Amino acid sequence: MKFQERVFSGMQPTGSLHLGNYLGAMLKWIDLQKTHECIYCVVDLHAITVWQDPAELRQAIRQVTAAYMAAGLDPKKSILFNQSQVSAHAELAWVFNCVARLGWLNRMTQFKEKAGKDRENASVGLYAYPNLMAADILAYRATHVPVGDDQKQHLELARDIAQKFNNDFAEPIREMGYEDGIFFPQPEPVITGPATRVMSLRDGTRKMSKSEPSDLSRINLTDDVDSIAKKIKKAKTDPEPLPGEVEGLEARPEAENLVGIYAALAGTSKPDVLSEFGGKQFSQFKPALAELCVEKLGPIADEARRLMNDPAEIDRVLANGSERARELATPILNEVKDVVGFIRG
Ligand code: TYM
After folding, report:
1. Domain membership of residue 316 as a residue range
2. Is residue 174 located within the same domain as residue 226?
3. Quick check: 132 and 45 in contact, CB under 8 A?
C-alpha cells in the first residue's frame, strides 16, 4: 500500500524548551508545515515516565503549546494537541509492548543514560518509552518524523516494530485487503540541517539538554535578551580563530557547535558561515551570534508570553487538535484491533 505522506513529531513538556529543541526539531516542523499534513504533539504521557509535579506538568503542557504557536506552528494548518487526550496512543503502545522484544529495548542508550546507575528504581514506563513513541507515530501511519539526532535509535526501533507487526500478523492483514501485506509504513527520520545535535555551551562534547544542572549550558526559548547575550559571551571556546573551511572544525567541538548554531539560525550552512567569519576571533563572532539569537528568539519568547496570558484559549487549541487527531487515529486503531483478533462492539 502506498501511504500518503504524513508528518508526526513531539516534544516533552518538562522544563522549558531550549535552542536544541528549536534548531534540531522545530525549525524543520515549521518548514514541513508548508508542504505536508503535520501532526505535532505535546507528549505528556512520555513526561510522566519520570516524576512530574501535577500542577507544573499542566503549566508545562500549556507552555510548550504556546512555544509551538509562537515559533510559527499554525493550529489551523497543523494538528497541535497533547498526547493524553487521544487514547489511541496508549492503546497502541500496549499492543507494541507485546510486539517489541526485551532485547531490543535493552539496547536503547537513552534509557541507560536516563536510568543511570539506579536502574532497578527506574519506572517501567521509562523502559517501555520507545514503544509508546512508535505508537505515537504509527497511530497515524506517519511517514516522516522530523527530530534531532538523539532520537535516531528510537526511530529505528519504531521501524522494527512496524515491520514485526506486519510480519506477525501477515495473514489477517492480507485478509483485510492489504494485498502487499503492509499495514504500517516504515517511518522515515528527518534529521537534516546544520544543527541536528546542539551541544552544551559549557562543554562541546555534551548535548544541550533540559536536565543539565547549569543554566549557562543552554539557551531557553524563554530567556530574555540579557541572558542570551550573557550565555553566549560565557560560552566555552578555544583560543584559535575560526577556520575558513569546515574541515578546520574537526576536534574543535565548541567552535563547531557555535558555527552550527549560527548557520541554523541564519538559514545557511556551516561553509557559508565560515566564508564570512573564517580567520576572525571569537571576540568578533560571539557578538554577531548573540545578536542573531536575540533577533530570532526574542519575538518567539514575547509571543509565547502573550499567549500564556490566555490559558483557556490554549486549552481550546489542544481540545480541537485532539479531536482532529482522534478522527485520524481511531479508524487505524480499530483496524489494529481487528488484525490482532479483538472483538469490538
Ligand atoms: P525531547 O522532548 O527530548 O526533544 C524534542 C525534540 O528536540 C530534539 N532535541 C535536540 N535536537 C538537537 N540538539 C539537541 N541538543 C536536542 N535536544 C533535543 C529532539 O531530538 C526531539 O526531536 N522522545 C521524544 C519525544 C517524542 C517523539 C515521539 C518524537 C515522543 N514521541 C514521536 C518524534 C516522534 C523526546 O523525548 O524528545
Report:
1. 6-190+310-340
2. no
3. yes
Cα dihedral across residues 43, 49, 53, 54: positive or negative: positive
**Cα distance between the two ends of the chain:** 28
Residues 133 and 154: beta-carbon distance below 8 Å: yes
Residue 295 counted as domain residue: yes
- Residues 180, 238, single domain; the answer is no
Looking at the domain assignment, is residue 201 inside a domain? Answer: no
Instruction: Please choose from 23, 143, 150, 155 the residue to mutate so as to test ligand 1's pocket, defined by most ligand atoms within 8 A of CB.
Output: 150
Place of cell 574537526: 250
- In the reported structure, the alpha carbon of residue 171 is separated from the centroid of ligand 1 by a whole-number distance in angstroms of 35
Residues 32 and 144 in one domain: yes
Judgement on whether residues 31 and 73 belong to the same structural domain of the protein: yes
Per-residue pLDDT of the chain (345 residues; tens, 9 = 90+): 679 999 999 999 998 899 999 999 999 999 999 999 999 999 999 999 999 999 999 999 999 999 999 999 999 999 999 999 999 999 999 999 999 999 999 999 999 999 998 899 999 999 999 999 999 999 999 999 999 999 999 999 999 999 999 999 999 999 999 999 999 999 999 999 999 999 999 999 999 999 889 999 999 999 999 999 999 999 999 999 999 999 999 999 999 999 999 999 999 999 999 999 999 999 999 999 999 999 999 999 999 999 999 999 999 999 999 999 999 999 999 999 999 999 998
Give the strand pairing for 188-190 and 6-11. unpaired
Q: Domain containing 134 — which CATH number? A: 3.40.50.620
Same domain for 105 and 247, yes or no, is: no
Looking at the fold, whether 163 and 17 belong to one and the same domain comes out as yes
Q: Cα separation of 65 and 81, whole Å? A: 8
Which of 147, 199, 265 gets mutated to test ligand 1 (max ligand atoms within 8 A of its CB)? 147
Residue 19 forms part of a structural domain:
yes
Annotated catalytic sites, by residue?
Answer: 114, 207, 210
